[in-house]
């Protein structure tokens, strides 16, 4: 790691990335820092609508404004086509698409996007890091290098692998939030507006602040508890995992993006509830929220009224598919699900395959993540047509 990027610089950059989870208005500045770290001239964060060939989110740094508009207005179909073709061939979205490595010189020479948007800025190569991918959309960060910087090398790929988990976690937590900014004077008010539970803790999981949703959860004893003002989960195993994640965030933020993106807080026979742990050791914004806090824990539950119901509505799931999904989200295996409903395992698998096909994911873990992302985050109306974070605003 030290050979790729100095530990202190890596920690500072990760701190800036996690600041964006709480204040998405910081993305442009952080993207500029990312581009500088990668020795790249331009960078963009986009959410690509595959059905309508448009950007739902288009944040950028280094791009000439006129060319950024031209990219959005004329070249999204070409970008979507090339990247989705490549994604369809990959076993994991962890792989990075590099123009110089994955497109032929003949294609690059003939590409309208390259000719009209990249060449005028002297961009000779782009590396794409994928944050999410479903049948309807994908999100990615694209880093472009100028001719004077040369093409993408092994260093940039390795650095991308280091930062990708943190970028994903920041965006995932942003899915939970719907606030434009949080300042210390208004922290309680802003956090209380969130439907999810939020708990700020010290290194020993001591509770420093909890919003109203979290206090209600703890008063019921589920899915989180307060044991002498120490945060605990619904099971001993989950409490240990939660404490490990908090300790890990406190002591080694540069690795905090590794491991499970979400911690299951309760038993498999209960509607699942999960926690995301956001490190708070570094980063300008987060250290102002609660000086002694080392972690912010975001707690959300997926149930029929939130994630599963919204998923069923969004992707036109049948009643049988919803039953299968509910059972899997409750922690049951496919075999247990089939036995419970008195159907063959092959029939249950067919239902699951249909769910995968409709939602555009290929793994149960991705299905859980998608369901969590559709959980209504804030006390207020939820726009089913725009389930991505509202705080990013309209595309540029």
UniProtKB/TrEMBL annotation:
This is Helix-turn-helix transcriptional regulator. The keyword Cell inner membrane does not apply. The keyword Transcription regulation applies. Residues 314-371 form the HTH luxR-type domain. Keywords: DNA-binding, Transcription, Transcription regulation. The lineage of its organism: Bacteria, Pseudomonadati, Pseudomonadota, Alphaproteobacteria, Hyphomicrobiales.
